[in-house]
Amino acid sequence: MKSVEPAHAAPPAREKAPPVTAAEPARPARSVRRNRDWLHGLLMSTPAVAGLIAFVGIPFGYAVVLSFYNVRLGSPLAPTFFGLEQYRRLFTDPDLSGPFLRALLNNLTFAVVVVPVQTALALGLAILLNRKLKAIGVFRSLFFMPVVFPMALVAVIWRLILARSDQGMLNSALHTVSFGNWGAVDWLGDSATAMASIIVLSIWQGVGFQMVILLAGLQQIPGELYEAAELDRASRWQQFRHVTLPGIRGTLVFVAMLTSVLSFRVFDQVYVLIRGGGLDEDAARTVMYQAVTTAFDQNNVGQAAAITVVFFLIVVALTLIQRRVVRPDNED
Amino acid sequence: MSSTRKYRRTACTGLALVLPLAALAACGGGGGADASAEAGSGKGTISVWAHQGQKSEDAAVQAAVKSFNSSQRDIKVELKLIPGNDYTKTITATSASELPDVMEFDGPTMANFVYNKKLAPIDDYVSSKTMANATDASKSQGEIGGKHYGLGMYDSGLGIYGNKKLLDAAGVKYPTGLSDDWTAARFTAALKALKAKDSDGKTLDIQENNGLTTEWGTYGFAPVVWSAGGSLIKGDKAEGALDTPAVISALETVQSWKTYVDPNTDGNAFAKGRVALSWVGHWMYPTYSQALGDDLVVLPLPDFGNGPKTGQGSWAWGIGADSKNAKAAGAFMDYLLNDTNVTAMTTANGAPPATRTALAASPLYKQGGPLQLFADQLAKPCGDSDITKTCVAVTRPVTAGYPTITAKFGEALSSIYGGAEPKSALEKAARAIDQDFSDNAGYKIP
């Protein structure tokens, strides 16, 4: 199956069109056009590139600079040059590198679990909701609803669900279902289940978004393909394997990429639950959480900058690897 | 067309380049001018910032400003209320020249504002009568290097609220005041006895729903450290103060209480009678007394060996370092700290008044009043470093490094409560605090 790439169709169409302004008809039209294309391309991308430079490039460069200094928020002392000290502490000082490496590990665990599980779940939901049922719109909105809630709100609600002892809704439900044989589990406070709890609530909140994208992908698959498959006596599973999956391959790859990028940003739910939910801080600390608390609770901007620089490089590396492994254009 | 775009792009890039540099300049620099306000004429308009708290507190501040403005013609006060959650961040992010003439601040943040020259000493501007009328506890919270930078209208205190009915039913003997305070072991025994009579075995509330990595963790549980003879920091060093064997064993005891603690997800554990004991501050009194009536008893925190201790300190008022009208600012502070306004404010929030006259007249905190214990505790202030066996109310460390101290202590407390080994958690926190102090040249106030 070849995926359709509408983007490529545009330039040839333009080439056929007559030159918009025939200012210098003496010159060969082709080179003028090429010049213009170059100029237009640059002009069109200017806002995006400027935004990228202003909001990603410069802050990142600035973070690199800050990470070499001992900079404090609201300190009368002038920033002093620290060299690689912040990085040395992050990787070799056991007190600082312990939490940092743990945060990195937590982030990776989160991504490794959330990306496949959430994508698969979103696909399942999308297939489930891609039917011609009465009031299907209602079901779709129901599943999409958690996406609309702010994460802070979701975290507060889940705090009630996951609360320890028998006050938690989950614990009391399990207690009832197991006829009182279920001991009250401290979901958030236990290091064994803290990250799992965060993962479950994050998937619950985010799955609707991926589902909607996949739903759109599913609806792009022409119905005739299924009819043809049915005539060939393809089973349900075979239809899914050979019609549905190839049909949404590009969408699926996009969703997986998006999920992995989003999953590195996990912060809100950890921040909200640690302050009030009794979440195990070590087991649930993520790199973003550590960077924010280092900068704004401890006023240690230099250290926070070093954390973000390391994290940025790791995420970029992972994204590049991922792009190599699952390239949308790849044929299977 | 293209020139305006180009112009915009240049402007955009320029702005993006300049903003972080400006931030850096705001982070560092600052030195030079001495942090002392200009006295001014004592007339004219002054600006005042206060935190927006409970509705009743806001109304009390607004009423005080209104009556001050109508009481005389020379000075006009313009009040700005800023939401409490963002208040400290707002001051941190505002340069000294844009800060108001009079501002409120949370007690433990004061040293940081003095450190970065945002507060001026008030001794020359507030009348000696006002200064003399402030309680010792309030004065020690506001003092750095012999100068006063802030005075509060009210103070704060910690205690344990008990449900008399439940305590009696379990046959638990509890202290009647500071003099016969219970030891940590007796407190643990009480929890055990209460547990036997409790349906879910949870008999204690420690406001877990506030989170222990927050300021509540430090405010609520630093008294355990002090009562064990330790300290959050001693002479700019946490090592050897925060991680002494006595502190470690005290926090092991706190850790062992977790099985008795109600997670208090709904914030109603004590008021609804689910638990018999609540480890919290004065501010729960209105709610609790309404829920329990005569069954409510107020007890001191348990003694871990060095006598009972409590936290102390709350919002206070000071004068902006760049004020051009400090004389007028001082006059306003005098007015704010008079009996009428302090009484109105403490009636609004139930806090112990921070002035001698208002405290003596307070129906809640006077001798024989229901919250006399809190007044008794505050009458024995330790300051922030002279923590003896006999003093009770300890001020949180008055140092610009406080943000790191509270963050690291809260982190250690939370992990100990979650099951980590107290020794390694406390040693780690102490090392991190010491590292931070050495990175910042001891946070010496220049």
Automatic annotation (TrEMBL), chain A:
CDD domains registered for this protein in UniProt: TM_PBP2
Chain spans, region Disordered: 1-29
Membrane topology: Multi-pass membrane protein
Gene3D superfamilies on file: MetI-like
GO cellular component: plasma membrane
Sequence intervals crossing the membrane: 42-69, 108-129, 141-161, 194-218, 243-267, 301-321
One matching Pfam family: BPD_transp_1
Subcellular location: Cell membrane
Family: Belongs to the binding-protein-dependent transport system permease family.
Protein name, entry field: Sugar ABC transporter permease
Automatic annotation (TrEMBL), chain B:
Record carries keyword rRNA-binding: no
Taxonomic superkingdom: Bacteria
Pfam family, one: SBP_bac_8
Listed name of the protein: Sugar ABC transporter substrate-binding protein
Native source organism of the sequence: Streptomyces asoensis
Alphabetical UniProt keywords: Cell membrane, Lipoprotein, Membrane, Palmitate, Signal
Residues of the signal peptide: 1-25
CDD domains: PBP2_TMBP_like
